[in-house]
Design brief:
CATH superfamily: SecB-like
Strand order of the largest sheet: 1-2-5-4-3
Number of strands: 5
Shape: elongated
Largest sheet: 5 strands, antiparallel
Mean pLDDT: 80
Radius of gyration: 19 Å
Distance between the termini: 28 Å
Low-confidence stretches: 1-31, 174-185
Structural class: alpha+beta
Number of domains: 1
Number of helices: 3
Length: 185
């Protein structure tokens, strides 16, 4: 699944300034100086679904479960200008003191950043890349819960930019490259 995404209309600095426009060059490539986020691959790195009480709970009527959801974003530089970004999702559904299911997913993307200023790399890795990965990871979690015998767990959209800004404000500056920001919701 190769995809090239130029940021013609997407601001990549937390202040809302527009990114350099790719202009009239080749589609997705842009002229020298244009910022490009190229998706090289997307993949499931780890997936776990546990249904500890499936046989008994399936036969009973029960209240709607309480679902606790945590999402973390990590990144790792794997080659010059290439990064693996991991979207780690954990959910546990509990009803009447019993666990219905637990699902954990590590969904990754391999991204090549072209002409991204060094001071904006962390922002791209913690905001733009997870935003690109999220719909695919959400689909995997929904399918896993549905195949586990439950209604699909549909995760609400996540504003990674707001989370990034909250982390930056809490630490007094922007998190550094390769640092795991506690981006949990």
């Amino acid at each position: 699944m190769s995809d090239e995404t130029s940021n013609e209309n997407t601001p990549i600095d937390g202040d809302g300034a527009d990114a350099p426009s790719p202009g009239n060059g080749d589609a997705g490539v842009g002229p020298p100086g244009g910022i490009v986020i190229q998706t090289l691959a997307q993949y499931i790195k780890d997936l776990s679904f546990e249904n500890p009480n499936g046989a008994t709970i399936a036969q009973e009527e029960h209240q709607a479960p309480d679902v606790e959801m945590n999402i973390t974003v990590t990144s790792e530089n794997i080659a010059e200008d290439s990064y693996e970004v991991a979207l780690i999702m954990r959910a546990e559904a509990v009803t009447e003191g019993r666990t219905l299911f637990m699902v954990e997913l590590t969904y990754c993307g391999l991204f090549k950043l072209i002409n991204v200023p060094a001071e904006r790399v962390d922002l791209v890795l913690k905001v733009h890349c997870p935003t690109l990965l999220f719909p695919f990871a959400r689909h995997v979690v929904a399918d896993a819960t549905r195949h586990g015998g439950y209604p699909p767990l549909l995760i609400n959209s996540i504003d990674f930019a707001s989370i990034y800004q909250q982390v930056a404000a809490a630490s007094g500056d922007e998190p550094g490259d390769g640092e795991e920001a506690p981006e949990e919701t």
